[in-house]
Amino acid sequence: MQTPESPRRAGKPKRSKEETRQIVHYAELMVKMRARACVISELTGLPSLEVRDLWQRVAGRSSPSGQQPNDLAWYLKSSRRRFHSALIVQLYHQALQDLPAYAAMTNAYYHYGQITAASAPRSSWIDGADPSFRGEERDYEVPFSRANYLCKAYTNDKLANGRRKCPLVIKSCRNPSCQALFMSSEDEVREHCTVCAK
Ligand SMILES: [Zn+2]
Predict the structure, then answer these.
(1) Do the Cβ atoms of 69 and 75 come closer than 8 Å?
(2) For residue 94, what is the enclosing H or E element?
(3) 160 has a pLDDT exceeding 60
(4) What is the pLDDT of residues 30-39, one digit of tens each?
(5) What is the 48 CA–ligand 1 centroid distance (Å)?
(6) Which of these, 117, 139, 146, 197, could form a disulfide with 192 (CB 3.0-4.6 Å)?
(7) Where are the domains of the chain?
């Protein structure tokens, strides 16, 4: 059955059957990438209880719980985190051009998993089959909940005083033969990535 195209935003009431089916499909993918139930629920608008059941069904155990990320300085604390978080934001903004936020986040994180496959041993991949689907949150340098928090917070918008709304900023390494994108902050003078700065 054809249904008219409607803006697919999480939290909007009255979804078509097809739309709900698609959202649940994305939610399943997020479970396989070990997104926490509360994050999936927030992104998709699916009821928390439903997502917890889904988690149990897909992962065979319950979703981890605990504090939601709230610290932007975390993304700067290692060289790897700087590269990985810049990558995630780039992928997310690309995906957001064509997809609603829940799907863009899923899509971006899936590709993040592919690109960073080498940093996670095959034994951490679910069934050893796909590097985007790993057994535990800690098998990703930047876990899904941290990635989601970052993507929500990251913006190039400025405040009235000219400072950035989000203190983090993605920079491109000044070394012409590198030019890697890395996460930095407004107050950091660094213009080279951590590898080239050594
Ligand atoms: Zn560099």
Answers:
(1) no
(2) helix 79-96
(3) yes
(4) 999 999 999 9
(5) 42
(6) 197
(7) 17-185
